[in-house]
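Hey, can you fold this?
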Amino acid sequence: MMHRIVSSEREQLILVDVNDREIGSLDKAACHDDAGVLHRAFSLFIFDARGELLLQQRSAAKRLWPLYWSNSCCSHPRLGETMDEATARRLDDELHIAAELEFVYKFAYEARFDAGGSENELCWVYLGRTRDTIMANQNEIAATRTLSAAALDEELSRDPDQFTPWFRMEWQHLRGKHMDTLRRYLAPAP
């Protein structure tokens, strides 16, 4: 278990327009205040050698969606950081793993958590696989687990409100328009 502090409400995020063109920067706190300000983000879906998806339960200290289950890792590239640098940094920061990632698609979404905060992101979605041992950063993650696609589908159907809104949207999109790509990761590794 790790306890490093790896993010700050003061870090500068990349503001974008709906076409993902950079238009400036703003601190993380302001990007998530009220209805939020559109900024670049990423979501990583990491599978193990058996083809099960790694899920994380967000830390109780998270401002938005604390203790909700979500995809393996999600965050933001910082100002001046490439997406490759950001995804590698965050996998190490949160899970202490590395993974070869495959970009699948990007989309814009908004989700309101409460009167004081929202997500308003243009999110890049990646799939990847790792054989590394997970060491969750407890400042970011309350728990981790792996699930088969069938078990995840069943949980999402039975109790969708235990999961973050972006994860539900992304999984549905992956299971629909990107099933051929997803199928490669759901299969056991050679």
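Oh, and this one too while you're at it.
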Amino acid sequence: MADRNRSWLEELERALLSAGSTLPTTALGRLRRTVGAAFRGGRLAWNGRGGEDLDLEALGALVGSVGQLKGIAMKAGQMLSYLDLPLPQEVKDAFSALQTHSASLSFEEIAALVRAELDDRAEPL
């Protein structure tokens, strides 16, 4: 079982690194990604309420969604991996992948998003 979880975690880490690093530039796009992550988390919690085995596929989808959100959502996911919470070790391990295996954004991409949000209020960088 430990080997299965390890290979699954390595697969999740590869998927996080290869995922697109683009952020949605509209409020609607950000809302869509946030709602998608919330539904995945709800599905994972709902399916696990009966004491069944953890659905690793659903957990991977949730971690991937949180990794694509970046910002505070990703930081919250990273914190879930190390805070002393009553979570299964597989959940903590999956969220720990966000600490080192998330696709990064270039400075140019971040600057463009900030400029788009602030319009005329953005100072030249």
